[in-house]
Amino acid sequence: MTDLETRLRDVELAEPPLGFDPDAIADRAARQVRRRSAAVVVATVAVVAAAFLVPSPAPVVPAAAPVPPSLAEQSRIRVALGEAVTRVLPGVHDLTLGRSSADSIGPERMSVTAEFVDSSGRPGNFQLTVRGARAAHQVVPADRLCTASGSAARCVRLPQPDGGVLVLSELVYQDENGTPVRDGITGFLYHPGGATVIMIGGLGYPLTEEQLTKVITDPAFVLP
Prior knowledge:
This protein is an alpha+beta fold.
């Protein structure tokens, strides 16, 4: 190795100034990373908190399905019908209630037949059907009764004090000989708003309009 090479290796050249502090830059970068991490954590916490704070919609509770009248309700209506029959037909005897094969029980509906012998010895019967609010659609609406095209020989609409409507209809049919036969009076009682409908049909016994009205408007004939 020459003397020149030896001298060049022994020379310590000073490094030019960088113009910045590398340690300061590293510290600044670390602080920025920490701040970004903290911001992400705060944002995440806020989103999670918001998810818990926003009220969820109330659950929709389905309406309860209509059910048949309870045994107690059935008994109450039968007893009330028996009392109504004895009021409008003094001297009636051999009264039975609810023994007809035509009687039926359904959701918010019951039918009960009164069979009896009147004071003159004439047998008779008629059926009462009581419907609750959600079974009222099974009956023809009041505004469709007593129309000009109907088959009733006589049909009247009678407003009631409570806002309901009583429809009295006397039907006529022809027997095998073509002779018109009056089938007695049928009554339809529509409570206010159509909530409850009561129907009573004269089945072979000539109840008068007054007698039928007294029976059908008995306040006991309702289903809750």
